[in-house]
């Protein structure tokens, strides 16, 4: 077992930029720029494409082929990249197989899914946009209308683990929004589209379209459509670097939720925090491997306590080695001057997850503008949001929550305005339209008003 280490940073000196630089360096290391690939990835790329390609070039090639060749390219890449030789008829999981998986699944899991579904539905229904109509003056009706996106595609990972939680956190908000058609894609692996728990979850939620394909080829098939899979209007859900790059590439042909990178958390804690709790929360993100896990505190004694707890807890965890490596590469224990500086540092990083384990967390969240999802108090671990609380766990990463929002039922609505004027109301506002239109030289616009005012 490798020795545990995590970098510590003393940020109390106002003339030192160590903490800011540390956070920036961590973000850069986790940035999904698409120019790095593992040795295994390089070997597979050479084998499949006959030459070394960057991940961006790989994705461009796959998406171009699937767009032009359709199902045949999808099946070819499913075989060469995932090692699964399927026919066009075998891509879609039969409904009977979904039913069989549901019948075979652990009864406790099914009951759990039902309870979690109720939690998600309750929250997502409460925040769902509703049509708004105003009548600012006689004869004028102005409406902002919301309609659900017709067809949505969901990416569910299936490489190292099965993720029924991803199905719930993406499909249920879409269902609350009123999406008519939901298609799930998952790689043809024991953790993906051959996984009983994942298939049972789909059946429990009423999802009838599940396809055995993953990676960039599945994203391309959903975006462009093919004989085996009708195109969707929006693609959501997590995935590896190739999935993220493919989603970025097809954006514009379809909508996407985000261009997401590895998971991340910042924990802000004071002297009231339990070091064992804090350590467990850092490890929970680190076990995504890669995953960034950072503690910011102004209690110097807590640093040593948490470091000790990390070393102890890692020894008892099944994925301890993975989490240990991630903490060494992407973790940090930062000592701040006070709560205000802790909030400033957090805002500069704009983390996907923010956990505030202090005596009065409500006062600190008011000072922080940028976090994908915040969890307040000693008894609100991020895992609650990952699995059961109600908000979706699909969140912006890499500092993008400065401008991006997490997935919600509203992500599946398209808004549009509806305007209605009576003849008298048009006569009142018409001269203003004519004045501006004529200034812009758009005389046909002006005439479309004046012709109605004879």
From TrEMBL:
The keyword rRNA-binding does not apply. Substrate binds at residues 263, 285, 288, 353, 386, 440, 445. Gene3D superfamilies: 1.20.5.1300, Nitrogenase molybdenum iron protein domain (3.40.50.1980). Pathway: Amino-acid biosynthesis; L-histidine biosynthesis; L-histidine from 5-phospho-alpha-D-ribose 1-diphosphate: step 9/9. It catalyses: L-histidinol + 2 NAD(+) + H2O = L-histidine + 2 NADH + 3 H(+). It comes from the Bacteria. The keyword Signal does not apply. Its cofactor is Zn(2+). Keywords: Amino-acid biosynthesis, Histidine biosynthesis, Metal-binding, NAD, Oxidoreductase, Zinc. Belongs to the histidinol dehydrogenase family. Zn(2+) binds at residues 285, 288, 386, 445. GO terms for molecular function: histidinol dehydrogenase activity. Binds 1 zinc ion per subunit. This is Histidinol dehydrogenase. PANTHER family: HISTIDINE BIOSYNTHESIS TRIFUNCTIONAL PROTEIN, HISTIDINOL DEHYDROGENASE HDH. SUPFAM superfamilies: ALDH-like (SSF53720). Its EC number is 1.1.1.23. Catalyzes the sequential NAD-dependent oxidations of L-histidinol to L-histidinaldehyde and then to L-histidine. The active site is at residues 352-353. It holds the Pfam family Histidinol_dh.
């Amino acid at each position: 077992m490798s020795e545990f280490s995590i970098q510590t940073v003393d940020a109390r000196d106002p003339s030192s930029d160590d903490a800011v630089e540390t956070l920036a360096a961590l973000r850069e290391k986790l940035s999904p720029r698409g120019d790095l690939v593992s040795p295994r990835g390089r070997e597979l790329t050479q084998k499949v494409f006959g030459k070394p390609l960057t991940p961006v070039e790989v994705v461009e090639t796959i998406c171009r082929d699937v767009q032009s060749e359709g199902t045949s390219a999808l099946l070819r890449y499913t075989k060469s990249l995932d090692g699964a030789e399927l026919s066009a008829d075998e891509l879609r999981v039969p409904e009977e197989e979904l039913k069989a998986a549901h019948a075979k699944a652990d009864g406790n899991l099914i009951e759990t899914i039902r309870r979690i579904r109720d939690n998600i539905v309750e929250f997502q229904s409460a925040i769902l946009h509703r049509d708004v109509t105003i009548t600012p003056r006689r004869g004028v009706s102005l409406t902002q209308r919301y309609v659900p996106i017709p067809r949505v595609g969901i990416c569910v990972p299936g490489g190292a683990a099965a993720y029924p939680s991803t199905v719930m956190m993406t499909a249920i908000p879409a269902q609350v929004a009123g999406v008519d058609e939901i298609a799930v894609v998952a790689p043809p692996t024991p953790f993906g589209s051959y996984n009983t728990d994942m298939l049972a979850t789909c059946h429990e939620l009423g999802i009838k379209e599940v396809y055995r394909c993953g990676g960039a080829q599945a994203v391309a098939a959903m975006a462009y459509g093919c004989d085996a899979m009708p195109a969707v209007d929006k693609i959501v859900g997590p995935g590896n670097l190739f999935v993220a790059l493919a989603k970025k590439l097809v954006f514009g042909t379809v909508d996407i939720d985000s261009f997401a990178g590895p998971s991340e958390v910042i924990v802000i804690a004071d002297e009231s925090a339990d070091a064992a709790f804090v350590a467990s929360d850092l490890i929970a993100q680190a076990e995504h491997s890669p995953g960034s896990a950072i503690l910011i505190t102004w209690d110097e004694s807590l640093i040593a306590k948490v470091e000790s707890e990390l070393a102890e807890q890692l020894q008892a965890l099944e994925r301890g080695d993975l989490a240990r490596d991630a903490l060494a590469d992407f973790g940090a224990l930062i000592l701040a001057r006070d709560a205000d500086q802790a909030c400033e540092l957090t805002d500069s990083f704009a983390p996907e997850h923010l956990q505030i384990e202090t005596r009065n967390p409500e006062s600190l969240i008011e000072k922080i503008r940028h976090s994908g999802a915040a969890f307040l108090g000693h008894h609100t671990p991020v895992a609650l949001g990952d699995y059961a609380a109600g908000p979706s766990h699909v969140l912006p990463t890499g500092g993008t929550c400065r401008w991006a929002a997490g997935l919600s039922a509203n992500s599946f609505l398209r808004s549009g305005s509806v305007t209605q004027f009576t003849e008298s109301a048009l006569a009142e506002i018409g001269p203003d339209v004519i004045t501006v239109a004529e200034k812009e030289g758009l005389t046909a616009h002006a005439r479309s008003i004046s012709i109605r005012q004879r």
